[in-house]
Design brief:
Layout lengths: L1 H20 L43 H30 L15 H4 L5 H16 L1
Length: 135
């Protein structure tokens, strides 16, 4: 029964990683350079009736096309990271104490587990995130 449980856990983790990798795959888009496909805030993805383009804080007021594209890319990226964080939170709850990581010493609810991670690993994680943000 323990072997079945371990196998199920490994398969679940592998399936989660494979599914989340698709979130970071670039979307295939056809390229064309006609005036009909010009970029405006009114035809951005997500601008739907009845609201249209929703910008309550006015970030797009003085932004040009490149800046709006950068904002949209950042929004999508942060949404994907948030989805992965939610999955990580759920996995942390499920595999508590039954993983080879950190010698199976991380226990408790997922909200309390990060404070139990060794300081060296935390510094490595923060450094990797900072490096990724600079790229």
């Amino acid at each position: 029964n323990i072997i079945t449980s371990t196998t199920n856990m490994k398969l679940t983790i592998i399936a989660s990683v494979a599914a989340s990798a698709a979130a970071f795959a670039p979307a295939q888009q056809a390229r064309s350079s006609t005036a009909m496909n010009s970029f405006t805030v009114d035809n951005m993805p997500g601008a739907l009736p009845p609201m249209g383009f929703f910008d309550p804080l006015g970030f797009a007021t003085d932004a040009d096309e490149a800046t709006l594209r950068k904002y949209r890319e950042a929004e999508v990226t942060h949404g994907r990271v948030a989805m992965l964080a939610a999955v990580g939170f759920l996995v942390g709850e499920k595999v508590e104490g039954s993983t080879f990581l950190f010698d199976s010493q991380i226990t408790g609810s997922a909200i309390d587990q990060f404070s139990q991670v060794p300081v060296g690993y935390t510094l490595l994680l923060v450094g990797a995130i900072g490096f990724a943000e600079l790229q």
